[in-house]
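Help needed: design a sequence for this.
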């Protein structure tokens, strides 16, 4: 068989399918010749290529125990995997907790001093003191300064949390349903992923037709693992558009510092940013009915090439104009979105022309 000819034919077929032959092979789906043969065998080429792409290019990632999920006896935040999360955790651990601790200890000491020194036995004749101007100024001013000190980083964090996604950011649509989540990928061929909680062995079935947790090696904790995870690319801002189909739900993933209500008839938008590949779990966080506790969220963050391979495992999934995917540098908290910044040169050019 003329391999060169076959390769060209296969390449044409693959292009017609909207697939890059290189990407199929690079993803380690199969041996090059097998790939060529699969892609070249008309007319079932489409089905075969799809099956081939789904066969080996994507395997769900196994979560790291204790990462992206609650831990036994945990009392603090889950470890954070976004810049905003790290900032929020810093405000909590290094600003709020010390201030609260100092105030609490100070008030406790005052109470103890008062109980010991100013009781009736120690003061048979009560003092008639009623005013102390200096003291009153101090106990008014100091709390004001403390509150300002807390307000500055708090409002800063609040503002950064609602900074819009840069132009070109990948958009994922999240829909809350009673009682599961659906994830739409409009930038990748508009396929939709339906995500149900896995059933728990030995307990009443929650979702008919869904497998039991622990039946695959990559399964995470019960009540948190799902049949189809929300897969996202790592290291780039993602525009999450969140809505609901029936009642109010809330999309919340603690380790990614993300919580936003899913309201029927309305789209709420916020940037999701994941710094490190991994599996991060969350739960619906708005009481939404009988099975509210059984609609977990599992976010699997993958490097771009693996994300693309995952996209291609879906019917109609495609890698489109994301070559210029928004990069991390486009979304540093505190800076303007890249979209706005990119308009500046044009404005200068206009000014120069005048
Ligand atoms: Cu819900």
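Sure. Designed sequence:
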């Amino acid at each position: 068989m003329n391999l060169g000819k076959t390769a060209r034919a296969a390449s044409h077929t693959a292009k017609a399918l909207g697939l890059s032959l290189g990407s199929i092979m690079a993803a380690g789906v199969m041996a090059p010749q097998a790939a060529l043969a699969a892609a070249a065998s008309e007319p079932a080429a489409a089905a075969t290529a799809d099956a081939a792409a789904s066969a080996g290019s994507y395997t769900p990632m196994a979560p790291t125990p204790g990462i992206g999920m609650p831990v036994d006896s945990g009392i603090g935040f889950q470890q954070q995997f976004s810049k905003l999360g790290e900032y929020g955790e810093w405000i909590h651990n290094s600003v709020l907790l010390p201030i609260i601790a100092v105030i609490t200890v100070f008030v406790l000491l005052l109470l103890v001093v008062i109980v010991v020194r100013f009781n009736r036995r120690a003061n048979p004749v009560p003092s008639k003191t009623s005013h102390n101007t200096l003291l009153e100024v101090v106990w008014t001013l100091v709390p004001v300064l403390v509150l300002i000190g807390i307000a500055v980083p708090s409002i800063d964090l609040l503002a950064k949390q609602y900074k819009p996604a840069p132009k070109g950011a990948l958009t994922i649509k999240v829909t809350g349903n009673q009682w599961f989540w659906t994830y739409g990928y409009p930038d990748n061929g508009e396929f939709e992923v339906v995500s149900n909680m896995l059933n728990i062995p030995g307990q009443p079935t929650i979702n008919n037709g869904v497998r039991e947790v622990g039946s695959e090696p990559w399964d995470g904790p019960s009540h948190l693992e799902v049949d189809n995870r929300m897969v996202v690319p790592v290291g780039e801002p993602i525009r999450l558009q969140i809505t609901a189909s029936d009642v109010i739900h809330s999309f919340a993933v603690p380790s990614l510092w993300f919580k936003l209500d899913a309201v029927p008839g309305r789209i709420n938008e916020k940037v999701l940013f994941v710094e490190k590949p991994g599996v991060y779990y969350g739960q619906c966080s708005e009481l939404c009915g009988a099975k509210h506790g059984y609609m977990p969220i599992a976010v699997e963050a993958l490097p771009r090439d693996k994300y693309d391979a995952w996209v291609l495992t879906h019917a109609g999934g495609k890698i489109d104009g994301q070559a210029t995917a928004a990069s991390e540098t486009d979304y540093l908290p505190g800076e303007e979105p890249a979209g706005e910044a990119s308009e500046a040169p044009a404005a200068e050019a206009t000014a120069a022309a005048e």
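The beta strands are 170-177, 180-185, 191-195, 230-233, 238-244, 249-253, 258-262, 268-272, 278-284, 296-302.
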